[in-house]
């Protein structure tokens, strides 16, 4: 085995691992005062890993990649694309965190280090070529996430969010492990390629239950129905920068991991997993749309929006084609931009004492007091609803087009009909901002970093985003092609 090649292929994770260990020493030596410098250095480390992932993605010789460490890890264009999205979301989450936590005196240097640990786990997830790598990466990400959710120690909601996430996450991990053990028992290996070659034809009850349990464990990680129950509570209770991180980077990692497991390990069982994915996709779309209607907390509403969008993403996977996976990846880019932009807007919701506001009623009349923030909010809401000509419409169009091309017209029709339900609560937010009597609760506390990020992402999901299609479409197609 050539360990030099293995080390080169895993360079994004190695950069982050070395950086995180050094930053832990800086944090221990510098104490709380080192939080800002550790954050800056963490951003630089993530940028360095992003650069390596970009090299792997854009260099044609790396498109189909290769295996590292005896087939435990796979470097290819698909994993590199997912890592770029993950690192981008992590960088944005770090940029907006200090101001939020410093308002309550809660920011500590452990926060950016935990984000890096989570990013290392997510990188392993999207490049996993073996069930063991899958589980180690997933647990590294999850253990960091449990601490991040309960980062504000004197906040009961934050502690409750961390505890709920931990308990339910442990349950999901148990299901996943049991499923992996059953699959291993019948396939004789934990390697995705060997499992794919072994589990062919009609499955007996044992491996079938194993496949179902593995998919159930992964469905929890992407907060898909019926394993979504933790999402609204954790999103509401966790600090808003943490929620923004949860809704973007881990979502990308879990969805990319699900795609890789299904295509690489269970590709020969299309009829088995396709039924499950179709049900989960439709259930997530419908429940995410209906359950959000009665929400009065903006973070809970965005949690159900996340569940809703996962359903649309899974329609692309249900197609089971390279076109479907390419559409998923394209939609993921738009989803990350819309979600991060929305949560940064939520961070701008503060009263005169600097206390965060989360109720929808506090947004009333925002268009009169902060017209720029109101306009950005409206752009993100309309784009999440998939209303043309905003860029969110294009993401939905691509996954529906892939479903139709795969002969799944009824799935596309039901998905389109359900998206109309979801549009209701997005439009309700815009109505409160522009047409309700001003509440005058949110004061103008704009920050240059946050305002700049909001403006950048609002422009990206506006009709100007269509200009990126010629550059982005070939990349997503190439990333999807390597799986097939």
Automatic annotation (TrEMBL):
GO terms for molecular function: NADH dehydrogenase (quinone) (non-electrogenic) activity; NADH dehydrogenase (ubiquinone) activity; quinone binding. It is found in: Cell membrane; Endomembrane system; Membrane. It catalyses: a quinone + NADH + 5 H(+)(in) = a quinol + NAD(+) + 4 H(+)(out). It is a multi-pass membrane protein. Residues 128-422 form the NADH:quinone oxidoreductase/Mrp antiporter transmembrane domain. InterPro entries: NADH-Q_OxRdtase_suN/2, ND/Mrp_TM. Keywords: Cell membrane, Membrane, NAD, Quinone, Translocase, Transmembrane, Transmembrane helix, Transport, Ubiquinone. One of its GO terms (biological process) is ATP synthesis coupled electron transport. Its EC number is 7.1.1.-. GO terms for cellular component: endomembrane system; plasma membrane. Its main location: membrane. Belongs to the complex I subunit 2 family. NDH-1 is composed of 14 different subunits. Subunits NuoA, H, J, K, L, M, N constitute the membrane sector of the complex. NDH-1 shuttles electrons from NADH, via FMN and iron-sulfur (Fe-S) centers, to quinones in the respiratory chain. The immediate electron acceptor for the enzyme in this species is believed to be ubiquinone. Couples the redox reaction to proton translocation (for every two electrons transferred, four hydrogen ions are translocated across the cytoplasmic membrane), and thus conserves the redox energy in a proton gradient. This is NADH-quinone oxidoreductase subunit N. It comes from Parasphingorhabdus marina DSM 22363. The gene is nuoN.
């Amino acid at each position: 085995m050539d360990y030099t090649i293995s080390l080169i292929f895993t360079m994004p994770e190695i950069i982050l691992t070395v950086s995180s260990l050094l930053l832990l020493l800086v944090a221990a030596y510098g104490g709380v005062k080192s939080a800002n410098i550790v954050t800056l250095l963490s951003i630089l480390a993530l940028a360095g890993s992003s650069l390596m992932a970009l090299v792997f993605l854009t260099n044609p010789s790396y498109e189909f990649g290769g295996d590292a460490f005896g087939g435990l890890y796979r470097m290819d264009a698909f994993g590199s694309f997912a890592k770029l999205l993950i690192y981008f979301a992590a960088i944005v989450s770090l940029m907006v965190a200090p101001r939020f936590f410093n308002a309550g005196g809660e920011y500590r240097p452990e926060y950016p280090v935990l984000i890096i640990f989570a990013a290392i786990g997510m990188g392993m997830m999207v490049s996993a070529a073996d069930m063991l790598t899958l589980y180690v990466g997933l647990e590294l990400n999850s253990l960091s996430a449990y601490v991040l959710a309960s980062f504000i120690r004197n906040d009961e909601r934050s502690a409750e969010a961390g505890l709920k996430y931990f308990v339910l996450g442990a349950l999901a991990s148990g299901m996943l492990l049991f499923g992996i053990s059953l699959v291993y028992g019948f396939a004789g290996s934990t390697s995705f390629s060997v499992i794919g070659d072994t589990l062919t034809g009609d499955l007996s009850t044992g491996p079938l239950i194993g496949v179902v349990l593995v998919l159930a464990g992964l469905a929890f990680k992407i907060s898909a129905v019926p394993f979504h129950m933790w999402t609204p509570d954790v999103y509401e209770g966790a600090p808003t920068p943490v929620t923004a991180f949860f809704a973007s980077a881990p979502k990308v990692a879990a969805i990319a991991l699900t795609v890789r497991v299904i295509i690489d390990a269970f590709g020969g069982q299309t009829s088995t997993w396709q039924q499950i994915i179709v049900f989960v996709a439709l259930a997530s779309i419908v429940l995410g749309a209906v359950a959000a209607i009665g929400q009065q907390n903006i973070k809970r509403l965005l949690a159900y929006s996340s569940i809703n969008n996962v359903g649309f993403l899974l329609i692309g996977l249900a197609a089971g084609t390279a076109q479907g996976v390419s559409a998923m990846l394209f939609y993921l880019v738009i989803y990350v931009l819309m979600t991060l932009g929305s949560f940064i807007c939520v961070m701008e919701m503060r009263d005169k004492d600097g206390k965060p506001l989360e109720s929808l009623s506090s947004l009333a009349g925002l268009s009169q007091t902060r017209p720029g923030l109101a306009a950005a909010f409206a752009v993100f809401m309309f784009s999440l609803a998939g209303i043309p000509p905003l860029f969110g419409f294009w993401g939905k169009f691509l996954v529906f087009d892939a479903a139709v091309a795969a002969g799944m017209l009824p799935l596309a029709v039901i998905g389109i009909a359900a998206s109309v339900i979801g549009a209701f609560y997005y439009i309700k937010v815009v109505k409160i901002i522009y047409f309700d009597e001003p509440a005058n609760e949110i004061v103008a506390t704009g920050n240059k970093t946050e305002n700049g990020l909001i403006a950048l992402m609002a422009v990206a999901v506006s009709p100007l985003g269509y200009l990126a299609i010629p550059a982005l479409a070939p990349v997503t197609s190439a990333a999807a092609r390597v799986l097939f």
